[in-house]
Automatic annotation (TrEMBL):
Region (Disordered): 366-389
Domain 4Fe-4S Mo/W bis-MGD-type: 36-92
Keywords for this protein: 4Fe-4S, Iron, Iron-sulfur, Metal-binding
Species assigned in the record: Rubrivirga litoralis
Database matches in SUPFAM superfamilies: ADC-like, Formate dehydrogenase/DMSO reductase, domains 1-3
InterPro entries tied to this protein: Asp_de-COase-like_dom_sf (IPR009010), MoPterin_dinucl-bd_dom (IPR006657), Mopterin_OxRdtase (IPR006656), Mopterin_OxRdtase_4Fe-4S_dom (IPR006963), Prok_molybdopt-oxidoreductase (IPR050123)
Protein name: Molybdopterin oxidoreductase family protein
Amino acid sequence: MPTTPTPSLDLDAIREFGPYLQYARDMRVDTGVEPDRYVKTHCCFCGQQCGMQLKVKDDTVVGVEPWYDFPFNKGMMCPKGIKRYLQQSHPDRLLHAYKRDASAPSGFSAMAYEEAIGRVAAEIDRIQAEHGKDAFSILSGASLTTEKTYLMGKFAHMALKTSNIDYNGRLCMVSAAAGNKKSFGVDRAANPWSDILGADVVWISGANVAECAPITTNYVWQAREHGAKVIVADPRITPIARTCDLFLPVKPGRDTALFNGVLHLMIENDWIDHEFVEQHTVGFDAVAEEVHAWTPQRTAEVTGVAEKSIRQAAEWWGQASTSFLMHARGIEHHSRGVQNVMSAINIVLASGRIGREHCGYGTITGQANGQGGREHGQKCDQLPGGRDLGNPEHREYVAGVWGIEPDELPQPGVDAYEIIRKIHRGEIKGLLSVCFNPVVSLPDNNYVREALEKLDFYVAIDFFLNETARYADVVLPGSLQEEDEGTVTQLEGRVIKINPAVQPPGDARQDWRIIQDIAKALGRERGLTFANPREMFEELRVASKGYTNDYSGITWERVEDNYGVFWPCPSETPEGVPEPGPQGTVRLFEPDSWNPIAQGAGPFYFPDGKARFNVTEYVGPTEDVDDEYPVILTTGRVVSQFLSGTQTRRIGPLIDHYPEPRIEMHPHLAAQLGIADGDWATAESRRGNCTLRAQVVKTIRPDTVFIPYHWAGRKSANQLTISAQDPISKIPEYKVCAVRVTRAEAPPEYEEKLQPQQ
Ligand SMILES: Nc1nc2c(c(=O)[nH]1)N[C@H]1C(S)=C(S)[C@@H](COP(=O)(O)OP(=O)(O)OC[C@H]3O[C@@H](n4cnc5c(=O)[nH]c(N)nc54)[C@H](O)[C@@H]3O)O[C@H]1N2
Ligand SMILES: Nc1nc2c(c(=O)[nH]1)N[C@H]1C(S)=C(S)[C@@H](COP(=O)(O)OP(=O)(O)OC[C@H]3O[C@@H](n4cnc5c(=O)[nH]c(N)nc54)[C@H](O)[C@@H]3O)O[C@H]1N2
Ligand code: SF4
Ligand SMILES: [Mo]
């Protein structure tokens, strides 16, 4: 393909200190224009994957319209989804390949695409020849379609033969995944969201539903309209908490104690479904023994929640006849995140309310493809279909599908943060990143920056030059979601179809083409010559067949015809086992359901068909407060910004909504520190510091401050956070570390940049 010559990219403004980005507000896209066509597809941002229509004119996305028929959101959207169209013709869009160039004012100059691919292949070859296969690593992402994530795993394991691939879901869904696997044997929300309607009690732990899963708010409120009691456990009175019936202001890092305390009361009052526990679970007695010590008084002391409220929560939960429990990163981003998840599941299992209409459980998936992206082989220990890279039988099956010997597959590698540590130690020399911005999103990011500077060679694939890509030797122009097609699996476990609306502009390419171009330039294109994403999906169907995440019965047509298909959806079932309906397995764990692990022995995904109660011993956060660092810092999100902000910090109307990160603190703490609303304040941990304006609000525990993490450089919350990880899931402990907070002078470097340029 011919390459258009270009001047060097004008990145002067994009600097480490509070980057100047160009804002899409300046684009004057006229949303009133009559489009050439409407494309039914889904949002590129969060895991709810709202159905929407893109308005397309002259190969440009010019606006968004509701798609009322899509059943999950019925035309509703949040501010991010409505403004997403401002990315595609954004002035910052990468239209060419770039190389690092010290003589260019921006540090980068454009290069021909083919030359860039050749350079990448040569560096991969060199590094692997000199230092071994594992010396080249990959960091991938869960905003990619499932087809691309499948390709990334295959590229790493089959073409590069490196163990070292992992993904940004390591920062997101892995505690939920591990807890679900240990309790249920399978990792997916157990129920469709329609089961929330009609639940007597809705329990929400550590999820800022209204800001981070906005459409779910509607489900919760509809349940409330029908009389449901809503319980929210969070250190902050979030917007959903303002409308709940019972608020549990849990101290960060204490959720296992809270759930153990609730189970204690359920046992004491005999609010246990004995028949279900007996028939469908194992391990209850050991858990009962563990929670025996969690009296309401002790639970209150540890969690900071009043004894009265704990008793009320246990009573409502214990006596309900239908219920839905959901949680998100608030209980999962911990060094005991998996324990927290299992302790939540324990109160669900004890109630017996799962696998039936209006009786449900679900972890709220974060990224667009946070579900599908964690299933098909881009995790460091995984093969497609949820199979294990360390399991000889699984290796044999997938190797058979790929036409290679099992011995040719590498052994499991290490998690994303450990990849960074290996880079820091000089054990890994090369990195390819796609759809991941670790400089902003990983904890203790001063360490991450040091590591990136040590790389021999780094190539990043993105459509914007994110802050990590600024460390790259070569940047390749990838595709936006609307420039490609494929499937994603949204938070209910429903596989849906992303439809292409426009072509990638300039030299930009669909990400999968770029990966295959690299494989070809390496001379390692065997198995990586797909003509389009549909071919990848067809292979994935076979590669996932017969195991937990079985997609073999799903076709793109079936997805389009049924507003999505829920996995597992086998292409054939044993004699006597009914095929799943047209929408696949909508609800998991129905009493007489069949799955490939239990083979009819019971509804859960273990050989005996029974769910597991897991003993959840309470262990506090890795770094607790002390005299030197007396305040708890917790971090998270705001409604108008998304993740590392690469995308949403470029969309003017979203910036206007929340232009700068602030340190949220209670008036009591603020008074103690002599800080008024709007004053500058410095939060300092053992790892770094950050000076931001204070936002004094009554909606947070007085012992805790909150900083949203969507900003880079000196505004990044991850300068402060700790890289402690859960020993099982390896998720970082974003939700608790210790800081001290002091009043500060305005930091001159970024005072002037408070408001985006007009
Ligand atoms: N607007 C917006 N929406 C998003 C995203 C985004 O960046 N912006 N990202 C998407 C992604 S990838 C994800 S993972 C989800 C995240 O969605 P959520 O998990 O809902 O969001 P967070 O803000 O990370 O944290 C949720 C809540 O946990 C609380 N919390 C902190 N510590 C604790 C604790 O120890 N215990 C309890 N019980 N609660 C605690 C915080 O106060 C916060 O209200 O959102 C998705 N949706
Ligand atoms: N302190 C703190 N840190 C956190 C969290 C927290 O709560 N607190 N939350 C964590 C969580 S839950 C998450 S999910 C992570 C997210 O952290 P990241 O994954 O690093 O964040 P993203 O902004 O999604 O970065 C993805 C990059 O991929 C690009 N991208 C998006 N879609 C595509 C695509 O289709 N193709 C290509 N080529 N590129 C694409 C975007 O432009 C962006 O530059 O952050 C984590 N970090
Ligand atoms: S960000 Fe999430 S809630 Fe908002 S429109 Fe997109 S998918 Fe829907
Ligand atoms: Mo996430």
